[in-house]
Amino acid sequence: MNERDIEIHGLTPEQVQMLDMMWSIESYQDYQDWLDSITLEEAQMAEQLKNLLVLTLIDDAMDNYDMAKNYLKKFQL
Fold first, then answer.
1. Closest to 49 in 3D by CA, of 30, 35, 61
2. What is the DSSP letter of 75?
């Protein structure tokens, strides 16, 4: 499986740093422990970034699906 970088434009340096931190967490329990250790404002930003990441992944998957669907149309009778 090919790994691809995920690009999210328009983030502040603080948001990039938080996403890097979130990405480095190895388990859901570690993520929960980390959330419990940060301020409410930071936890809200983490939730927003998590949602943004999920939406970006869904958008990327849909782009790949549309590309594949258009390619397969070439072979339809």
1. 35
2. T
What angle, rounded to 10 degrees, do the helices at 13-24 and 28-37 form? 140
Domain count across the chain: 1
Under 8 Å between Cβ of 52 and 19: no
pTM as predicted: 0.71
Residue 29 lies in a domain: yes
* Within a domain: 59: yes
Per-block mean pLDDT, blocks of 10 residues, the chain (77 long): 71 95 94 96 96 89 76 73
- To the nearest 10°, report the CA torsion of 48, 59, 61, 49: -10
Q: What's the burial of 12, exposed, middle or buried (CB within 10 Å: 0-12/13-18/19+)?
A: exposed
